[in-house]
Design a protein that fits this description.
Number of helices: 11
Distance between the termini: 68 Å
Order of helices and strands: EEHHEEEEHHEEHEEEHEHEHEHEEHHEE
Shape: elongated
Strand content: 15-25%
Strand order of the largest sheet: 9-8-7-6-4-5-3-10
């Protein structure tokens, strides 16, 4: 809604001085069936909140630029800003931008020596907010930085901005010197958001243009010639750690953030668990699996046709690096041939998703000699439908075999948990996927094992937060087994440890 004055210029939820932002998210907040009555009710509530000072200033979008995005064309490329802009103050900085693809760019350095192959550019950090927006042309951007309020036609107040046009002209002239007309450069504009303090207090806009267009703009600014050099704006994906609020904040998977994890087994469960761990923010992940990807595995494992013939560990490593290039992801080959002592020293958690008795024995041996802070987890599903799951957590004083035994005893003793007995005594209905020496395997689709893997990762996060050994038994909603959907079994360590029945 537009008002005929600018008395609210610069206030949160006011766009470019005279437009009231009644709906922050129209998709959820605006019901068209309510008609004009609904709009008027919303306006009354907006005015009531404004007078009482109840507007949430930190949710005001792009507050440093008058609450609006720069005008980007449909399909405009995206500039990702993930690095912390250390020491950002009003003024001009040299930047380098990496062209990752035709649709994605990334700001990779600020005030560092230029690297060949990267797009050069300038970061123009304004001393104050730009409440009337950033502008559409390079000339407008420079004028708005020098006099941020000049675009409002009925404003008598003028502010002296920084950096000045002379500073921008000098830096831009130096940047284009010796470059070809068709070369491209990037302009990033930063404006302070009045609701935020610290290193993340600047909002960002970005655009790109050719050197030839920049030289034409410099000529216009030097002579005062009217006209303008239209900027091609990026869509800015601002994911700086100082401003980003992760979408999984407050969920059990928060335990994994920044952790070092080893994943043993990259099959039906492990391949999906690996991706979920990376998306949860694991900083270091080592994956182990000696087997190779074959075409039949694509029915339910997290691989693609192009991976066929490569080792699972290598293929999964490449996939996960594509999900998060910043994470340290490596392939560790076979667990049975790995240096388990080194594994125990370098990680926070080891997850066994192999369903292998040999691997379980090695995990048990490692648990008995591991550092106190290292946790161990095992995940499993049933052989008939892959809709039941077990996730168990062990510690140095209560190793995996003991946790497994205690959980099995509880299942055996409780008739309500009888359906989970199949986890220890598999039904004789394995599927043999190919003729010859094909190894029989359990039944289950990608949707089944993905559901079990996803539930296991979330439930495991909660178990790890508690710090106690124990396990969760769970069933997917569509499981054909009639049993309790979720059961937590806590295990109390004691001095007498007996071997597992598995």
């Amino acid at each position: 809604m537009t008002v005929p004055h600018y008395r609210w210029l610069g206030e949160p939820h006011v766009l470019e001085g005279n437009r009231l932002c009644l709906f922050l998210d129209p998709q959820r907040e605006w019901a068209p069936a309510a008609g004009s009555h609904g709009v008027l009710e919303r306006l009354w509530g907006w005015l009531d909140d404004a007078v009482a000072g109840r507007h949430a200033t930190q949710t005001a979008l792009h507050h440093g630029f008058g609450g609006t995005r720069a005008r980007t064309e449909a399909g405009a490329p995206m500039l990702v800003v993930r690095r912390t802009l250390d020491g950002l103050n009003a003024g001009i900085s040299r930047i380098d931008v990496k062209e990752c693809s035709t649709h994605r760019y990334e700001l990779v350095s600020m005030d560092d020596p230029h690297v060949d192959g990267l797009l050069p550019g300038l970061l123009l950090a304004s001393a104050g907010q730009l409440p009337m927006g950033v502008g559409r042309t390079l000339e407008e951007v420079v004028r708005n930085l020098e006099a941020p309020w000049r675009m409002a036609p009925d404003l008598r107040q003028r502010s002296c901005g920084f950096p000045t046009s002379d500073m921008v002209i000098t830096q831009l002239s130096s940047l284009v010197q010796g470059s070809e007309e068709a070369d491209r450069l990037v302009i990033v504009v930063a404006a302070p958001n009045g609701a935020v303090d610290g290193p993340g207090s600047y909002d960002l806009m970005a655009a790109h243009l050719t050197v030839g267009e920049a030289r034409a703009a410099l000529a216009n600014m030097a002579t005062g010639k009217p006209g303008g050099t239209k900027l091609e704006f990026f869509t800015v994906d601002d994911v700086r750690p100082e401003i980003l609020v992760r979408r999984d904040t407050g969920r059990p998977t928060g335990w994994y953030r920044g952790r070092s994890v080893e994943l043993w087994g990259c099959g039906a469960l492990g391949s999906w668990i690996g991706e979920l761990l990376i998306r949860a923010g694991v900083s270091r992940l080592v994956v182990h699996d000696p087997a190779s990807v074959s075409t039949g595995l694509l029915v339910r494992q997290n691989y693609a046709e192009a991976d066929v013939g490569t080792s699972k560990a290598t293929a999964l490593t490449e996939r996960l690096r594509a999900v998060d290039p910043a994470a340290d992801i490596t392939s560790g080959g076979s667990v049975l041939a790995s240096d388990l002592e080194a594994s125990g020293r370098e990680c926070d958690l080891i997850i066994d998703a192999t369903a292998s008795a040999q691997v379980a024995c090695r995990l048990d041996a490692l648990a008995r000699t591991s550092p106190p802070g290292l946790r161990f987890a095992q995940v499993a599903t049933d052989s008939s439908s892959a809709t039941l799951g077990l996730v168990a957590v062990a510690t140095a004083d209560c190793p995996p075999s003991e946790v497994d035994r205690r959980i099995h005893e509880r299942v055996t003793a409780d008739a309500a948990l009888e359906g989970y007995q199949i986890l220890w005594d598999p039904a004789d209905d394995f599927v043999t996927p190919a003729r010859g020496c094909s190894t029989p395997t359990f039944r289950g689709s990608a949707s089944d094992v993905m559901g079990v893997a996803a539930s296991a990762v979330s439930l495991l996060g909660g178990l790890l937060r508690s710090g106690r050994p124990g396990g969760q038994l769970f069933a997917l909603p569509h499981s054909p087994v009639a049993t309790k959907a979720l059961t937590y079994i806590e295990v109390q360590p004691d001095a007498v440890l007996t071997p597992s029945r598995r």
